[in-house]
Amino acid sequence: MVKAYLRYEPAASFGVIVSGESNIAYDSSGKHLLTAALEKVGVWHVRQGVCTKNLAPPSSNSKGLSVAVTSIASSSSSLIASGYADGSIRIWDLEKGICETTLNGHKGAVTALRFNKLGSLLASGSKDNDIILWDVVGESGLFRLRGHRDQVTDLVFLDSGKKLVTASKDKFLRVWDLDTQHCMQIISGHHTEIWSIDIDPEERYLVTGSADLELRFYTIKHDSADGQLIANKSETDVNKDLPTENKWEVLKPFGEIQRQSKDRVGTVRFNKSGNLLACQVAGKTVEIFRVLDESESKRKAKRRISRKKEKKAAKEGLEATEKGETDIGAEEGSNPVVTVMDIFKLLQTLRAGKKISSISFSPVTSKNSLATLALSLNNNLLEFHAIESSSTTKLSAIELQGHRSDVRSVTLSSDNTLLMTTSHSAIKIWNPTTGSCLRTIDSGYGLCGLFVPGNKYVVVGTKGGTLEFIDVRSGTCVDVVEAHGGSVQSIALTPDGTGFLTGSADHDIKFWEFQMVQKAGEGSKHLTASATRSLKMNEDVLVVAVSPDGKYIAVALLDSTVKVFYMDSLKFFLSLYGHKLPVLCMDISSDGDLLVSGSGDKNVKIWGLDFGDCHKSLFAHADSVMGVKFVRNTHYFFTAGKDRLVKYWDADKFELLLTLEGHHAEVWCLAVSNRGDFIVTGSHDRSIRRWDRTEEPFFLEEEKEKRLEEMFESDIDNAFENKYGPKEELPEEGAVALAGKKTQETLTATDSIIDALDMAEAELKRIAEHEEDKSKGRVSEFRPNVLMLGLSPSDYVRRALSSVHTNDLEQTLLALPFSDALKLLSNLKDWACIPDKVELVCRIATVLLQLHHHQLLSTVSSRPLLTVLKETLHARVKECKDALGFNLAAMNHLKQLMSMSSDALFRDAKAKLLEIRARNTKRIEARADTKQEKKRKKKQKKLDGGHVWS
């Protein structure tokens, strides 16, 4: 009988507040901050400091891989966009918390996303050097813009002129006309990569930031009604003396401002009102500039000119002043020349404690400050600062829900209800079921830990050689014992639960016994431990393990060996050698028969503890094996490695059962629950992940076949002819291409359409034969094909086409052979009669005609079909256009009637509804705050009363 195993699947991921690979962004209301948390988008309520939603893509993707979020953008509505490392983009409805659509087009990670003001268009830039414009409403790609020679770093819409400005690492700015889909201006001048660009809300100035020591500013010219480019209203004062403008010149250099920091620019952003500009560098500072209005900037220009005049007078004397008075006086007139220094004034420099990854201005301005700025730091922390005219005030921080550095150890309590994690400066106690942080205790650099029986205390071994005893209930460190002269590398509980062992880099193994002591001046006792005996080794001790029967101690040393001793007499029993690099982790099975060791040589070895023989050596990971744990009462075990993978093995059959993928960096540690129903892993990416055992059985042979299929699928993109064929040539200057890309989904959709066409053709033949038999008098009952689900042949093909995602339609039709394209075209004339399918029919017809134009011209049989389509489609499109126009006119008429019947201004019903909803939410929040305040005062009153009574 074939043995079945139970599958483990990803269940929860917690501990990450913000990952540094992506930007942060506020939603349109300003109440929530959107952050990237590896593969999820976290929605944080700014006021409450809690994560209200996690927007995560479905885990059931083809390879089971989790792809990191690399870019976030929010629109003026409730829609937000998130770009991923695999080039995909997801549009989310923030209110519902669901994914509206997935857009596939980029071949590299998405590096920049931006909505236009209406939120109907989305522009995306990527590491593949391309820019794609997406129709958010139609959920499809419009076109791809090519021209940059390196990664696109940022982009911004010029809504007034229907243009797009893009920046790249190739040091160039490009201005694209979205109507004609061509590059109309290329701006050079930067000496290094351009990292960020932005425009003010009124679209007067564009600012660019790079690794240069200055910020560059450009003035923007807008289209007039007749299509000619005109200057800004205030620009006449700025650039009077410049020569005649080029009509294609949209951006004109305005000037430069010297930055305070020498680090490269990370982000430049204007706030919503446009009176502040923030420049975040790839360091710990943000420079805040005040944007002066027209009258203030003119006054500043006049003061500058007058100071210049005074300096000149003082330098050259009175005669020289009289001589040059006419020139300066002309400059000092009612319209002085305003420079960039007159408009942008450095207000203050905000300094954070750690390196800043990204910034975002809140769209809502409070009464007491100019603006609120959110910072994401590279140590998994969010900060909120109020910017005032003379200083900045830190309002709050979101930090408790995650570690500031790597998770170095994970330990589960005996009843699996608590989880302890250690890092370089803190210990955290979690609820592993919900992922909520229960306690945070400051500590040394914790490398290992264990729960004391009873789960009221934990012991942590630190890098400094100390043992810290933590009271879980109060969240305090009750005792610190100087245990070793080197770092405590490993800690193991004795089977009887009365003590534990520690192994250290000072070559010592020490045996400890738990004690309850009472310090002088303290009312209650607390836990500590005293050393009873020690064992000296010749090398650093890396891992210590005790057999469940308490008979043996296994010690892994720096010389790549594992030595086994009798626990009672400490006499030498076995030496297990075979690893080429030191053993970093090991565990002993519940029955004491097997010992599994994982090493830096990427191998896992299974040893018998009876004779010390190596049962099997397995090449387990592509990098060092960092953790290994047996499932209790079985010979199954888990391993974790620096290759980001967690693997599930059978130690009796020496077979790999499952590979669990999900972490984005090295996995440092793992813990298995007592019942084996879940495991927990900690990683360099600061995430803690729980994997649950499901009721779904799987078989070893099926898993092997699945792994082979995945390997085959991953090699489709790197086929032999592609691998050794000529590389794709650089695109032409400002070239335009299709927005989509070929994926496994588009190939599957093409196959389903071809199958539907073949099935429909066969069914039509059967119907024709039946009609012929009927005419000849051979009466027989016609039985339709059951696979067609009771649909007619034409409807069945239409169903197959309608199931294709809108964004994948073009790429799906591109893969159709000409013969099938002809069959599809013959069906279009029938579908055009269905009102809600006219748009689909037109898209299919347009793509197929563009693709097979030459073949259709040379195929005589296709001409009657094309003639029918030309007449039918034109009439149907005109009908739809007339219907839409009539409906719009009727709605406008109703709007006018309603505004005439009432003195109040007509307002959109949806806007009013949203306003009422916002007002109700504010009331509820205010009520909740009042209740909380009352509770707090009541509690305080009780405490105060108790204190007086005592």
UniProtKB/TrEMBL annotation:
SUPFAM superfamilies per UniProt: Quinoprotein alcohol dehydrogenase-like, YVTN repeat-like/Quinoprotein amine dehydrogenase
Comp. bias regions, Basic residues: 300-312
GO biological process, one term: maturation of SSU-rRNA
Small-subunit processome Utp12 domain mapped to chain residues: 795-896
Segments of this protein annotated with the region Disordered: 300-332, 926-950
SMART domains noted in UniProt: WD40 (SM00320)
PROSITE patterns: WD_REPEATS_1 (PS00678), WD_REPEATS_2 (PS50082), WD_REPEATS_REGION (PS50294)
Keywords per UniProt: Nucleus, Repeat, WD repeat
Domain of life per record: Eukaryota
WD repeat coordinates: 62-102, 103-136, 145-186, 187-221, 400-440, 481-515, 576-617, 618-659, 660-692
Primary subcellular site in the record, as a coarse category: nucleus
One GO CC annotation: small-subunit processome
Location of this chain's protein in the cell: Nucleus, Nucleolus
Family: Belongs to the WD repeat WDR3/UTP12 family.
PANTHER family per record: WD REPEAT CONTAINING PROTEIN 3 WDR3, WD REPEAT-CONTAINING PROTEIN 3
Protein's recorded name: WD repeat-containing protein 3
Species name: Nicotiana sylvestris
Annotated gene: LOC104219775
